[in-house]
Specification:
The protein is an alpha/beta fold. It has helices at about 15-25, 40-50, 70-75, 85-95, 110-120, 125-145, 160-170, 175-180, 185-200, 205-210, 235-240; strands at about 5-10, 30-35, 55-60, 80, 100-105, 225, 230-235.
């Protein structure tokens, strides 16, 4: 395996489509498909065992909600293939933590570039749609400056609050783990507990919730501010 090879797991209902997509991806030596699954549930074991870099998903019915259980249990970025440019689907995907969307009508080079960008920690969305979504969420936070503290927030442990603070700074799981001197598995456990207690489904929803309910300081201008007053880039926090 070459040093810069990107490992992928593909999820899609149709075996013929997965086989064709595998052949297409592996025409580029940078990519290697290490596993396939028909649905998110059956993909989970493969993802845990083989640790791909990117999860590529074909949703025939555009039912984005079916990916929520998977997104709660894995750290790998998800790139979604869809049939049409639907603004609401774009917004829903960004809110639940999907890192990118590619239309099936796009050329192969667009898909390849999206996989590389997603693997590098970037987000691959239509810029206008993503910008509108982020602006909407920022406006929502600023309107709710006096939103009361959340009763659920009182159930959070000190360590869970530390994890939330770091997520709001834009830190990824590995960075959170390094900062707190714990393993990434421990960070995932804390995040899962936080998601359940606060009833949120993604890091993006967690950031919005934390600012709404004063778990961290409110954003000022284009930046987010943590409890210790250090600024953090808004796009980094929302796209963590």
């Amino acid at each position: 395996m070459t040093p810069h090879m990107i490992k992928l797991v593909m999820i899609g209902e149709y075996s013929i489509f997965r086989s064709a997509l595998r052949m297409l991806l592996e025409t580029d030596p940078k990519f290697r498909v290490i596993g396939e699954a028909k649905c998110p549930e059956s993909a989970l074991e493969i993802i845990i065992d083989d640790s791909p870099d990117v999860i590529l998903v074909d949703l025939a019915d555009n039912d984005v909600a079916q990916l929520l259980p998977l997104l709660r249990q894995v750290d790998q970025p998800v790139l979604l293939l869809i049939d049409e440019r639907d603004v609401e689907i774009y917004k829903q995907c960004l809110r639940i933590g999907i890192r990118g969307l590619v239309l099936k009508e796009e050329r192969a080079k667009t898909l390849f570039k999206a996989v590389e960008k997603i693997n590098a920690g970037e987000i691959w969305f239509d810029r206008t749609v993503m910008g509108d979504t982020i602006r909407h969420l920022i406006d929502e936070i600023q309107v709710l400056q006096t939103f009361p503290p959340s009763p659920a927030g009182a159930t959070l442990t000190a360590r869970e609050l530390q994890v939330i603070e770091l997520v709001c700074k834009g830190h990824k799981n590995k960075e959170v783990a390094d900062t707190l001197f714990v393993t990434e598995t421990t960070v995932r456990h804390h995040l899962r507990a936080v998601f359940n207690k606060l009833e949120v489904n993604s890091r993006l929803e967690l950031v919005v919730y934390a600012f709404k309910h004063n778990l961290v300081k409110k954003p000022i201008g284009n930046g987010f501010y943590s409890p210790n007053g250090q600024p953090s880039d808004a796009a980094s926090a929302l796209g963590a």
